[in-house]
User: What shape does this take?
Amino acid sequence: MKKHNFFAGPSVLPDYTVEETAKAIMDFNGTGISLMCMSHRDKSFDAVMNRAVELFKQVLDIPSGYSVIFLGGGASLQFAMVPMNLLRSKAFYVNTGTWANKAAKEAKLFGEVDDHVSSKEANYTYIPKGFEIPKDCDYMHITTNNTIYGTEILEDYNSPIPVVADMSSDIFSRPLDVSKYGLIYGGAQKNLACAGVTFVIVKDELLGKVDRAIPTMLNYQTHIDKNSMFNTPPVVPIFAGVKTLEWIIQNGGVKEMEKRAIEKSTKLYDEIDRNKLFKGTVQKDSRSRMSVCFVMNEEYKDLEAKFLDFVKARDMVGLKGHRSVGGFRASLYNALPMESVDALVQAMKDFEKEN
Ligand SMILES: *Cc1c(COP(=O)(O)O)cnc(C)c1O
Assistant: This one.
């Protein structure tokens, strides 16, 4: 039987993506060759790469003047590539948790970092609001969905300096005003494809302004100039990403993804707030639609392991919270069907009756 997949990443993908990718791995487009065994220099793979770029632009309505590239190394390599390519003297990093910290740590290798805006003192349970964006910085870095803590930035900032966003775990879950960003990046393995590829959307005019020498492979311009084929690209995850983007379009685009994300997360948060056993872990105005974190109320804390067994018996996987927060985390990515949320909500109700 199919499981309800709440894993944080790698995570649930549309059946369409998995099935089409499996077919292409057996026989790519009737060529008699597996996608895994085909030269990336072959014309038919060229078409896949071009389609990936084209679909990114279409689905996110990316204006002209931006490039879309596909790289290796995960979002974690972007923590270093971003400052290497963009940081001249000082950058502003909004500190909303583990990933934001890891990004800031790499930036400090290349220049000064202003990271005074933070929710650290409250264990990252809210998104800082109403702060002033320092104009003397080269860019501002944000982590839109804080996968570990369950907070999310749902606004496109009006910023006097370029905004760089790690959107690893909420890309394609709402319409974006891309023109308000200088650079958007993320690992594919949350809302796009299998692990192995990282997407970068970058405003071209921001590049080429730093004095330092940048290794060829770590220079965005290299990959823009070679259409992400300077070296061998991760062909299978790029193909899978194309299929997910097709699925998003077939299902009504990012506007519909947003509607579903609101419906799914509202249903689950409503149950967390209603149920006497559970409570949410972050401020209500900062709650993530993608990563729903919750714990058991103090008086029921010893039931945590029992609840995990309870949901496991009902074919739900991936609900254990991140080790740094504990409790539970339900990742409600685009491909997670409403039935999975219904199953979890029902399990919470039934568990409450039994305990
Ligand atoms: C998962 C995740 C990362 C790490 O991605 P890798 O591709 O494993 O390097 C970074 N940032 C956020 C917000 C994430 O959710």
User: Anything to note?
Assistant: The CA atoms of residues 271 and 346 lie 9 Å apart.
